[in-house]
Amino acid sequence: MVRDSTGLGRVRWFLGFVIFGLVVSGLTAFPLRHELEILAELVTDSDGLSPRFPAFPGLTEWVVKVRDGLIATDETYPFVAYGTDWLAFGHLIIALFFILPFRDPVRYSGVLWIGVVACVLVIPTALICGPIRGIPFFWQLIDCSFGILCLPPLLWALREIRRIESTSAQ
Hints:
Structural class: mainly alpha
Number of strands: 0
């Protein structure tokens, strides 16, 4: 069975984007406190509290609140950060699941459908759990964007796989 190498290349590019995004998301969840301290420096004036960008005071307030919460939690209950370590690990493991479809997209296309379902479920999860946990709506939208950004490459990859399958069948 001959497969279309151009189609396979496109599928691998789409899946590489998904894998890369998952790995970056995973790796950036480990040093969360340090990242929030840097982000707070970027969005606040030299006092560490006043918004550097007055047009986005809510963003600054949220970043400072999360930074302060992480610092307080880390000083008193450092074991809570173990939860974000597992979040990071989970992202890295999910990325591994896309390796088989990367190598043989036609054979393992079912894995991509699981990814599609996960992308869709990110949205209600963020919009249901976010308000329960006191997460601002704009941040819930950022969380939703992970599913929204990952969905097109998975659907494009599935479309290419169908095209490869139909070409191979002929």
